[in-house]
Each structure stands twice: as structure tokens, then as C-alpha cells.
Specification:
- The chain is α+β, with helices and mostly antiparallel strands.
- It is 27% helix and 37% strand.
- It has 2 helices and 4 strands; from the N terminus they run E-H-E-E-H-E.
- It has a 4-stranded antiparallel sheet, with helices on one face.
Length: 71
């Protein structure tokens, strides 16, 4: 089934690229949106997952990115 991940990261640095790297090799579809002030970027990722454990695995990888907020 498809799962929607949502993260918020600081706009400075290459945090969006770090998130994209986590989902490399998958059929993930990305969309990004900058905050009104431009300090943060919202990243939405739709990706096909096979189990709840796989969902958790992606969250665990993402939480290693400095400054990331998982929604």
C-alpha cells in the first residue's frame, strides 16, 4: 500500500537531498513547499510500502537528519 510521509526541515543546508537519499531506489513521489518566512521546507513523500515495519524503518532513517520534524 501507499504511505504518505511528511517532514519539515530547515531551509538552510541540503536537508531535502538527505531525505531524498533515504527513499532512493523506490518509486517515491516528492513534493516540497517553503514556509511563509522561508526558514523551513515541508517535504511530502508518497511511497509504496509492504509492511508497517517498513514504514517505521523510513522514520528511523529520517530521524537521524539534524533538525527534522516528522508529522
Amino acid at each position: 500500500s501507499e504511505y504518505l510521509y511528511k517532514f519539515i526541515v530547515p531551509a538552510n543546508g541540503n536537508k531535502v537531498v538527505e531525505i531524498e537519499d533515504i527513499f532512493k531506489g523506490t518509486s517515491a513521489k516528492f513534493s516540497t513547499k517553503a514556509s511563509k518566512t522561508g526558514k523551513y521546507i515541508s517535504v511530502s513523500i508518497k511511497v509504496k510500502v509492504n509492511s508497517s515495519n517498513e514504514v517505521i524503518t523510513y522514520y528511523r532513517k529520517a530521524e537521524k537528519i539534524e533538525g527534522i520534524i516528522s508529522l
